[in-house]
Amino acid sequence: MNGASSFALHLLRHGEPEGAGRLIGATDATPTPAGLSACVDQGRDLGAEVLIASDLSRARLAGEAIASETGVPLSIDPRWRELDFGTWDGLAPGDVDGAALARFWDDPDAYAPPEAETWSTLVRRVGSAIGSLAVRPTLVVTHGGAMRAALAVLCGFGQRQTWALDLPYGCVLSLRVWPGDGAGQQPAAQIARLYP
C-alpha cells in the first residue's frame, strides 16, 4: 500500500475461560489450564518482537505464559479488553430476554444492554490501541470482540461483516498492517492467515 512500511500483527484470542458460553465481557474469568496451554502453543513461534495483552486474567495470564516461553517482555493494555456487556455481563444467554438479546446482536449500538459499552465505543477503543502500535512484529492476546473491532478499524468491515469469521478460543488472526501517517491517513490491513 503505497510502499509504506508494514508489520505483522497477530491477534490471539484467549483460551477457553472458566464459565465459557456466558456473556463474559468485563467479567474477569480465569482461563482453564487447557485454554492457557493452547495459547502458549499458538503464540510460541509467531516471531513477535512486541507482546501485548488485555488486562483481564484470561488474556493477561496467557500473555505472561507466552512471555515466559519466548523471552519477549509483556505490556498490558486495557484497550484490548472485551466489550463490556453491562448488566448482562457474566450471564448465560438463556438468562437474558431473548428479544432483547436478538436486538443487541442485530444492532449493538442502538440496543446495547443496560450500562454496557456500545460497539462503536469498542471500535474507537481498539482503534486507539492500534494507532499506538510500533511498526514491529506484534502479538496481542485479546478477546473475540476486540478482534472483530480490529477488523472494523483495519479492514473497514461493518459490524455484521465481522461475524463472517469464526474466531474460536485460542485462534490466531494474522494481519499485514500498514500504519496511518498521523496526518489523516488511517491504518489499513490485509488478512494474512486465520488458524485455530
UniProtKB/TrEMBL annotation:
Species of provenance: Caenibius tardaugens NBRC 16725
Q: Which domain of life is it from?
A: Bacteria
Which SMART domains does the record associate with it?
Answer: PGAM (SM00855)
Q: What Pfam families does this protein's entry cite?
A: His_Phos_1
Q: What protein name is recorded for this chain? A: Phosphoglycerate mutase family protein
